[in-house]
Amino acid sequence: MKDLFIKEAPPEEDINAIVDQDDERVEDFISQELVGKMLESTAFRMIIMGIIVVDSVLIALQTNEEMSIKYGYIFSFFDQTVLTIFVVELLLKWYHGFKIFWRVGWNVLDFFIILSLILGPTLTFLGSSRVLRILRVLRAFRSLRSVSALAGLSLVIQTIMQSIPDMANIGMLLFIILTVFAVAGVTLFGKEIPEHFGDLQTALFSLFICVTQDGWVGIFEEFKKKGGAYHIGGAVYFFLSIMVGAFVFANLLVAVVVTNLELAMKELRQENQAYEDTLAVNVPTNEEHPYAGVAVFP
Predict the structure, then answer these.
(1) CA separation (Å) from 18 to 15, 21, 30, 286?
(2) Are 25 and 89 contacting, i.e. CB atoms less than 8 angstroms apart?
(3) How far apart are CA 110 and CA 105, in angstroms?
(4) How far is residue 214's CA from residue 218's CA, in Å, rounded to a whole number?
(5) Spatial contact of 117 and 83, defined as CB atoms under 8 Å apart
(6) 96 and 30 in contact (C-beta within 8 Å)?
(7) pTM assigned to the model
């Protein structure tokens, strides 16, 4: 009977293993929860965006040589401060997830911009005026960080990049059609109006002016001076070239960009919804969460 009331002693646990597990959990909690939420928070992004805007204004002010010399020490102080903030942000992103960092193209762009800003001053030993100009251009690259700081702006840039293959196809087709028009223009108007249709290159340039709808009236005045068949033929020629080049193909380019933008926004909404669903499924309960009820900040 005594054996029934004797409780077995719990197995001994290694205190060092427990401490190591707790340290790993604390580190994961800090890197994934605290740092991750801070980097993704709207307030943090707005702060970084505000710094980029102020820095862009300072870069623009430094183009004034007199102001750059007079307040050079102030500009230098702000340059170093902004660069330090960008480096700290980069280190925080690496701490949050080093491998994940390199999967995002905008992060890679930010890394090379910051790297160029850090390595730029090392070129000053060359003592060349061209090197100093390059350094000023590198400082201006900090404004590009606004692309990754704003989700909407990065989405637009991504859409344009995705639209480049389709726009290249449309541009190639437009060039072929303009070449046909240029050959016709040289054949019909080359002898009478050589300054605009004397050869193929000149005719293509004149058609490019028609496509942009800037300056084609001045070219058409030459046809009006010739009068007769050249006036009527020139009117028909310019009407067709402007309709095909300026309206049809311009609208095709806009349609490609708009379509890709709609697809990108749809994919972004689906990714956000999937991310929210994942968070809803994986939210730990009070018993499951290792730090439930623990105040992280005093």
Answers:
(1) 5, 5, 18, 20
(2) no
(3) 9
(4) 9
(5) yes
(6) no
(7) 0.54
Report how far residue 99's alpha carbon sits from residue 107's, in angstroms, rounded to the nearest whole number. Answer: 11
How far does Cα 138 stand from its chain's mean position?
17
Cβ atoms 89, 142 nearer than 8 A: no
Question: Which residues of the chain are under the pLDDT cut of 50?
Answer: 1-2, 4-5, 13-20, 126-127, 283-298
269, 151 contact by CB (below 8 A): no
Q: Tell me the one-letter amino acid at 30.
A: I
What pLDDT sits at residue 290? Answer: 43
CA separation for the pair 126, 137 (Å, rounded)? 17
**What's the burial of 44, exposed, middle or buried (CB within 10 Å: 0-12/13-18/19+)?**
middle
What pLDDT, on the 0 to 100 scale, is given for residue 22? 56
- Both tokens of 139, joined, read 């400082």
Q: CA-to-CA distance for 272 and 291, rounded, in angstroms?
A: 26
* CA 247 from centre of chain: 28
For the chain, what is the HEC assignment? Answer: CHHHHCCCCCCCCCHHHHHHHHHHHHHHHHHHHHHHHHHHCHHHHHHHHHHHHHHHHHHHHCCCHHHHHHCHHHHHHHHHHHHHHHHHHHHHHHHHCHHHHCCCHHHHHHHHHHHHHHHHHHHHHHCCHHHHHHHHHHHHHHHHHHHHHCHHHHHHHHHHHHHHHHHHHHHHHHHHHHHHHHHHHHHHHCCCCHHHHCCHHHHHHHHHHHHHCCCHHHHHHHHHHHCHHHHHHHHHHHHHHHHHHHHHHHHHHHHHHHHHHHHHHHHHHHHHHHHHHHHHHHCCCCCCCCCCCCCCCC
Residue-level pLDDT at 293? 43
Give the torsion sign (CA, 252, 254, 255, 261).
Answer: positive
Q: How many residues does the chain have?
A: 298
Provide the pLDDT for residue 40: 76
> What pLDDT is recorded for position 182?
92
